[in-house]
Specification:
This protein is mainly alpha-helical. It has one domain. The protein has 19 helices and two strands. The chain has a two-stranded antiparallel sheet. Strand 1 and strand 2 form a beta hairpin. The protein starts with a helix and ends in a 5-residue tail after the last helix.
C-alpha cells in the first residue's frame, strides 16, 4: 500500500522527488537521505511486487517460519533502501545488509548443497563490494560530503582518480550483475536457493549491479566511463552471448534460467555503455530507457519462471528436463504459464522483453554496429526454450506424472499478476517508459 502511495506521488524531471533527509553521522556529513527518480521508482515498484508475491508463495513454510519472515522483511528493507538511498555511505550499508540476508536464506532454507552455495555467494559478493567502498571514500574525500546528489551534479573526481574509481565500481557491479567472467557464483546460488530466494536474487538483487552501473559509474565518473565505454560494451556483448550458450548446455531447468539471467543482464550493460559512447541525446535516452525497462522486464519474466520451476519441483522433486514429458496435459495451468513466460524471455514481440531489447539494439546499431552481434543470443535463447518446452510439456505423457496436480489457488495468485504485467508491458509499455523517460531524457554527463 505504501508503495502505491509512493507511485501516485511520482517523480520530477531533472532531479529527485519525495526526498527524506535526517541527520545520521553529522561529524562526517553522512545522513539518512532517500529519494526517487525515473531510474529508481520502477525498481522500487518491482521490488515491492516480487517480495509480496514471494510472501504469498512462502505461506506454507513451517520450518522456523518466524525467522524466515524476519529475514524476508530485512531483505526487502535492504533492497528498497539500495534503490532509494541518496547518501553514499547509506547506500553501501543497504547494499551489504542484502548480502547477509540472502546468505542466511540460502544457507537456512536451500537445498542439499546449500551451505557451499551460500558461502560461495557470500565470499564472492563481499570481496566484490570492497572496491565500491574505496570508491565511495574517494568521492567523499574529494567532495567533503556523502550526498550522492552532489556527486552526480558535480562529479568530484577527474583524470586518473576518476578512472581508478570507475574500475573499482565496475568490479563491484560486475560481480553483482553478474557479468562474464565474474559470474560463477550465480548458478550455484540459484540452484541451491529456495524458490523465493531465487526470485528475489534474480528479480531484485541482480538489479543492484545494473542500477549501480547507471547511478554511480555513469553519473559520477562520466568522462572515465566514456573512455572505457568500448571495453564495457564488449563485456556486455560477451556476457549476453556467453549466458545464452551456457544456458543451452544445461539440462537442469533452474540452472538454465540462471544462465539466461547473465544473457539478459548483458543487454542492460550494453545499453548503459552505448549511452556513454554516444553524443546524440536522443540515442542516449533510447539506450537508457531500454536498459532500465530491461531491468524491470527481467524481474517480471525471470521471477515468474523461477516461481513456476519451484512449483514444478515441489511436485516432482526434480528439475532435470529429461525426466519429464507431456506435462501440458497433466498440468495445463503450469504448462501454459511456463510457455508464455519462456516466449517472453526469448524476446517475442508483444511480451515484456521485446520493447526493452528493441531499444537497446536500436541504440547499439546506431552507435557501435559491431556490437549488434549480441543479437545472435536471441536465436540461441529461442532454441534453448523451445527445447525445454518440447522436453518437459509436449510429446507423449510420462505415466510417472499422470497424477501431478495443477496450480492451486495460492499459486495462481502468485503467478497471474506476473503473467498480466508481462503482457501489459509488452503490448502497451508507454506508461512504464514514460516513468523512466522523464529522468533519462534529463540526465547530463
Amino acid at each position: 500500500m505504501l508503495t502505491l502511495v509512493i507511485w501516485s506521488r511520482g517523480t520530477i524531471a531533472g532531479g529527485f522527488a519525495q526526498i527524506e533527509e535526517l541527520a545520521w553521522i553529522p561529524a562526517i556529513g553522512a545522513a539518512y537521505r532517500l529519494g526517487l527518480d525515473g531510474l529508481s521508482l520502477p525498481l522500487v515498484l518491482l521490488t515491492s511486487l516480487l517480495f509480496f508475491l514471494s510472501a504469498i508463495y512462502s505461506a506454507r513454510i513451517s520450518d522456523r517460519a518466524p525467522s524466515y519472515v524476519v529475514l524476508m522483511l530485512m531483505l526487502e528493507t535492504a533492497a528498497l533502501g539500495t534503490f532509494m538511498a541518496l547518501d553514499g555511505l547509506l547506500f553501501y550499508v543497504f547494499f551489504e545488509v542484502s548480502l547477509v540476508g540472502m546468505y542466511f536464506m540460502i544457507a537456512g532454507w536451500g537445498y542439499e548443497d546449500r551451505q557451499r552455495a551460500a558461502l560461495m555467494f557470500f565470499i564472492y559478493t563481499l570481496l566484490g563490494s570492497l572496491p565500491l567502498l574505496l570508491a565511495i571514500i574517494g568521492l567523499y574525500l574529494s567532495s567533503g560530503t556523502f550526498d550522492m546528489r552532489v556527486w552526480i551534479d558535480m562529479p568530484p573526481l577527474t583524470g586518473i582518480a576518476a578512472m581508478l574509481a570507475l574500475i573499482a565500481m565496475l568490479f563491484t557491479f560486475a560481480v553483482k550483475i553478474p557479468a562474464f567472467p565474474v559470474h560463477t557464483w550465480l548458478p550455484a546460488a540459484h540452484v541451491q536457493a529456495p524458490t523465493a530466494g531465487s526470485v528475489i536474487l534474480a528479480g531484485v538483487m541482480l538489479k543492484f549491479g545494473t542500477y549501480g552501473l547507471v547511478r554511480f559509474a555513469l553519473q559520477m565518473t562520466p568522462e572515465a566511463f566514456a573512455q572505457a565505454g568500448q571495453v564495457i560494451l564488449a563485456v556486455g556483448v560477451v556476457s549476453a552471448l556467453y549466458g545464452a550458450f551456457a544456458a543451452l548446455a544445461q539440462s537442469d531447468l533452474k540452472k538454465m534460467i540462471a544462465y539466461t539471467s547473465i544473457n539478459h543482464m548483458g543487454y542492460v550493460v550494453m545499453g548503459v555503455a552505448v549511452a556513454a559512447l554516444t553524443v546524440d541525446l536522443r540515442i542516449r535516452t533510447i539506450a537508457l530507457d531500454g536498459a532500465t525497462l530491461q531491468m524491470v522486464s527481467h524481474g517480471l519474466v525471470t521471477g515468474a519462471l523461477f516461481f513456476l520451476l519451484g512449483m514444478l519441483q515441489d511436485r516432482a522433486h526434480s528439475r532435470d528436463m529429461s525426466e519429464f514429458g507431456g506435462l501440458l496435459g497433466c498440468v495445463p495451468w503450469l504448462g501454459w504459464s511456463f510457455i508464455l513466460m519462456a516466449f517472453a524471455s526469448l524476446g517475442l514481440p508483444g511480451l515484456a522483453h521485446f520493447p526493452a531489447e528493441f531499444q537497446v539494439f536500436l541504440a547499439t546499431l546506431n552507435t557501435a554496429p559491431w556490437a549488434i552481434i549480441a543479437i545472435l543470443a536471441i536465436v540461441v535463447t529461442a532454441g534453448l526454450y523451445l527445447r525445454a518446452i518440447a522436453a518437459v510439456f509436449l510429446g507423449s505423457e510420462n505415466e510417472k506424472w499422470l497424477e501431478m496436480r495443477d496450480l492451486d489457488r495460492r499459486e495462481k495468485l502468485v503467478i497471474v499478476p506476473l503473467l498480466i504485467l508481462t503482457v501489459l508491458v509488452g503490448v502497451a509499455p508507454g506508461w512504464l517508459i514514460d516513468m523512466i523517460h522523464t529522468t533519462m531524457a534529463s540526465l547530463s554527463f
